[in-house]
UniProtKB/TrEMBL annotation:
Residues 134-327 form the D-glutamate N-acetyltransferase-like C-terminal domain. It comes from the Bacteria. SUPFAM superfamilies: P-loop containing nucleoside triphosphate hydrolases. It comes from Sphingomonas bisphenolicum. InterPro entries: DgcN-like, DgcN-like_C, DgcN-like_N, P-loop_NTPase. This is EBNA-1 nuclear protein.
């Protein structure tokens, strides 16, 4: 699997994004690796911000930035034509390009030519290693926690990062295991699960979380949702291969429909718990839900606390917003480690 060595610091490219859910790479890097991010660069029409200083490539390069990171994760992982001028501008300014998109940077002749002329790198993070085996289903040593969701892009990565940090703060031996492009950029290593051939998804998840000491926890970043009509395959392969002892259901307050598709309503949290247990028992009969991670970013502190209390009473599980932390988050950690 190896450890990625990326040129840093970053200028985050927001493209023409108008929805935060599709700029999760930039937002995740700004939240979890702020020391690596010097600024952001958006095109006309972009309405999303990562809260960083707006800089042109030339301005960012003069401040020491070394790589332009495509901070957008759109449907299909495509690089549209309207981005090309900006990406070439960055190469000409002396940047390497780092992408987590499905589309490969070098497949665009204009980018390949510009990179060659400028002597710059085109780095695709979403490239799985060669030689991934099919899954064995063998029970591995160590303990595992997987974040799952009612939908995609609502907090599975943030939850896994926060729980891994919380475990470590308690003296628990734990590692965050990245399964998507943003997590890999933060952690420096991982497995781009949604770029793995379907027959090898569970095997890739086994590689992501190998045998470990019995008291060690791997906290695994979830992908997609078992209820998403496009991404459920990746979610299921990750569930089977990671063999989680514990899972956390992630949900965003106020979201009612599946992101990126029309006509599909969000499943209820109890539906997600039931489905995850039924399907997860194939490779870990002892799988259990420890609680709910609630994205309350649309609420103020008082409203968030009220919603956390209401949902915990209704569902009978610990509920917490891992970004707000506090006593509710400590109770969620208690349930994970119980």
């Amino acid at each position: 699997m190896g450890t990625l060595v990326l040129p840093r610091p970053y200028l985050l490219f927001l493209g023409d994004a108008t929805e935060c859910g599709f700029a999760k790479t930039a937002l995740g890097l700004a939240d979890w690796a702020p020391n690596l991010c010097l600024g952001e660069y958006g095109l006309p029409g972009c309405t999303v911000t990562a809260g960083l200083p707006p800089l042109t490539p030339a301005e960012a390069r003069s401040k020491g930035a070394r790589a332009l990171v495509i901070g957008v994760a759109n449907v299909g992982g495509v690089i549209p034509d309207q981005w090309m001028d900006a990406l070439v501008e960055a190469l000409d300014a002396g940047f390497d390009l780092v992408s987590g998109m499905h589309a490969k940077l070098a497949s665009f002749p204009r980018l390949a030519d510009a990179a060659a002329k400028a002597g710059r790198q085109l780095i695709d993070v979403r490239t799985p290693p060669s030689g991934i085996p099919i899954a064995t289903g063998r029970k591995r040593s160590g303990k595992r926690l997987l974040t799952v969701g009612t939908d995609c892009a609502l907090g599975k990565k943030y939850t896994a990062l926060a729980i891994a940090d919380g475990f470590k703060a308690r003296g628990v031996n734990a590692d965050f295991r990245a399964s998507g492009q943003t997590g890999i950029m933060i952690a420096g290593s991982g497995m781009p699960m949604d770029s793995v051939v379907s027959d090898f998804l569970a095997g890739a998840a086994e590689i992501l979380s190998p045998d470990a000491p019995q008291e060690h926890w791997d906290v695994i970043e979830g992908q997609g949702s078992l209820f998403h009509p496009a991404y459920a395959t990746v979610s299921l392969g990750l569930l089977h291969g990671s063999q989680p002892d514990v899972f956390i259901v992630c949900h965003e307050v106020g979201r009612t429909g599946i992101l990126g598709v029309s006509g599909y309503s969000l499943p209820s949290i109890p539906q997600v718990i039931e489905q995850t247990v039924v399907m997860g028992r194939l490779t870990n009969p002892a799988i259990r839900c420890a609680g709910i991670s609630l994205n309350t970013s649309s609420l103020d502190a008082v409203g968030a606390a009220a919603e956390i209390d209401r949902l915990s009473t209704e569902l009978g599980y610990p509920v917490a917003d891992p970004i707000r932390r506090g006593a509710a988050f400590e109770r969620l950690l208690d349930a994970c480690l119980a």
